[in-house]
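Progress against Task 2.4 (sequence-to-structure conversion) is shown through the following example record, which the project officer requested during the mid-term review.
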Amino acid sequence: MVRKVNKVIGTVWEIGERKFGHDYKRGMMMFDSLIKSIFMYEAEIWGWREYEEIERVQEKYLKWTLGFEKYIVREETKREKMRVEAGKRAVGFEEKFSERGDSKILQECWIEIRKEGRKHVWNERDKYYEGKGYACEEIERMREMGRSMKEELTVRDKDIDKQERRSRISVCRYSAEYRKIVKDEVPKYTEREYKGEKNDDEI
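Structure tokens generated for the chain above:
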């Protein structure tokens, strides 16, 4: 998957340099529509796990768009790791799947899935919940009580992501100076439009 995305990125960079240079807003629009959409394919299945190679692709693209070092660029843009959305999709899929009581086939599939709980692929699911402070049994108990956990888990994942961004900055060379100017909102300069040459015949 990463190899396919790198090919797409090469094309996006080539077009981007000519059409909008380092216009962050338009650059990220292209990233979300052409690159992130590929990564998010079947995230409902693999979204329990964080893939470092996928996260590196986003950081590399952000660095190209703004020209900053990797340790700064995610904090400046407030872009979350792709694992946040992937995890949200995986949790939402599981909840939807387990709630479809009107379908016997789906319920039978869900029973088989739960039987697979001790195998490797479902260990990733356990680690995901535990990383957010919940045991799988606790999650299932809350769902049986009619409580959806998708949004709560996503909020926790976003908080963890923010802590990771800040801790990464703290160990870098110019961290003391940067911490004095860092803000909680996205800087306004990211909204500036690039005034370079445009070719309307290009996509």
